[in-house]
Amino acid sequence: MATHTEIKASLPDVMKSKDAVKLRTVRSMITAFTNESVATGGTPQDFINEAATMAVIKRLAKQRKDSIEQYEAANRQDLADPEKEELAVLESYLPALMTQAQIRPIAQAKKAELGIEDKSKLGLLIGAVMKATAGQADGGDVKEVVESLFE
To answer: Among 11, 13, 87, 131, which is disulfide-ready with 64 (CB 3.0 to 4.6 Å)?
Structure first.
């Protein structure tokens, strides 16, 4: 069963569990799926594919991370805490990300394949590694690994 279908099907169970954070997060995911479906020219009942589902969940997680960063910079822990709780729920639906140790061999191979010898083509190498990892690696981790190859 597709992830978005599982999430939609889990809504009654989440409601029964009375877990307010998970309920709020699941509802926001379902709304985002519907919006994505409509934005791509479908109807709200259309199902989006697995890649689009993961992209939506990643986008929601990134929004939460950005909000947490902003709230903590403004010393608003009361607003950051609910965002952290929602982020934890979102991350439970995402596949595990690659570690920097797993990214390093891919980055080294791409560096050799593209013949990049200096930092001037850092962005090109980061883009190639991100494409090779197919969304399974965090962009910040990829950037750190690629930059460390030139030290």
So the answer is: 87
Q: What is the pLDDT of residue 70?
A: 94
Q: Which domain holds residue 104?
A: 100-148
Residue ranges, the chain, pLDDT below 50: none
Query: Do residue 16 and residue 56 come from a single domain?
Result: yes
**CATH classification of the domain holding 120:** 1.10.10
Per-residue b or e along 110-120, where b marks 16 or more CB atoms closer than 10 Å to that residue's CB:
bbeeeebeeee
Same domain? For 10 and 59 the reply is yes
* The CA-based dihedral angle spanning residues 80, 81, 83, 85, taken in that order and rounded to the nearest 10 degrees: 160
Contacts of 46-52 with C-beta under 8 Å, sequence gap 24+, read 47/2, 47/4, 47/5, 48/4, 49/2, 50/2, 50/3
